[in-house]
Amino acid sequence: MVLLMQKLCMVRDIGIHGNLFGGTMISWIDEAAASYAAQICHTPNMVTVKIEEVVFQKAVKAGEQIKIYAEVKKVGNTSIALSVEARRYNVYSTEESVVCSTHIVFVRIDESGEAVPIPQIVKDRYTNE
Ligand SMILES: CC(C)(COP(=O)(O)OP(=O)(O)OC[C@H]1O[C@@H](n2cnc3c(N)ncnc32)[C@H](O)[C@@H]1OP(=O)(O)O)[C@@H](O)C(=O)NCCC(=O)NCCS
Questions:
Q1: In angstroms, what is the span from residue 109 Cα to ligand 1's centroid?
Q2: pLDDT at residue 127 in the model
Q3: Is residue 60 within 8 Å of 14, Cβ to Cβ?
Q4: What is the atom index within ligand 1 of the atom nearest the CA of 47?
């Protein structure tokens, strides 16, 4: 998996149970993955069409460091599917543990918002891996 983003969980990110608010984590994941999908597909015109089941395995507390990783699972005609993991990073031991994971699908769109094909060179690159 490729490292996409690093976040420090701030007090402002905490919800009413003392843990990182789930919607904030989803926002981080969506932003990081959208940026990665745009880089892979060589276009800024990518929209999120689906965020699959999001599993919050472990609570995240204020002051903890989070690293967001992704890998390409599939490149379709107009869509790209990514597997994403958010991992807590222990600055003392450098150990990482998954705190949240999901799959996200992005679609390439034209100026009218219609789905358009992802370049063949991108499909070839990820089909042959
Ligand atoms: C993304 C969007 C353009 C797709 O339109 P559409 O009419 O469904 O287009 P299509 O049916 O041609 O599907 C396009 C691709 O999306 C995929 N797709 C559509 N719905 C999907 C779903 N629920 N799950 C997974 N993939 C899906 C299709 O499989 C297809 O992939 P492929 O070409 O690689 O086979 C449209 O749904 C949209 O504008 N959604 C809103 C996006 C948005 O605002 N996101 C939030 C902000 S970024």
A1: 9
A2: 79
A3: no
A4: 48
Residue nearest to atom 44 of ligand 1 (CA): 47
Q: Which residue's CA lies nearest to atom 6 of ligand 1?
A: 115
* Residues whose CB falls within 8 Å of the CB of residue 110, separated by 6 or more in sequence, listed in order: 45, 116
Q: Which of 107, 118, 126, 127 to mutate to test the pocket of ligand 1 (most atoms within 8 A of CB)?
A: 107
Looking at the structure of the chain, the number of domains it has is: 1
Distance, CA of 116 to CA of 85 (rounded, Å): 28
Check which CATH number belongs to the domain holding 17 and give it.
Answer: 3.10.129.10
128 pLDDT exceeds 70? Answer: no
Q: How confident is the model at residue 129 (pLDDT cuts 50, 70, 90)?
A: low
- Spatial CA neighbour of 73 closest among 50, 95, 56, 96: 50
- For residue 27 and ligand 1, the question of a CB distance below 6 A is answered with no
Residue 75: predicted pLDDT: 96
Q: Is pLDDT of 44 > 70?
A: yes
Domain carrying residue 80: 2-127
Q: How far, in Å, CA of 6 to CA of 68, rounded?
A: 6
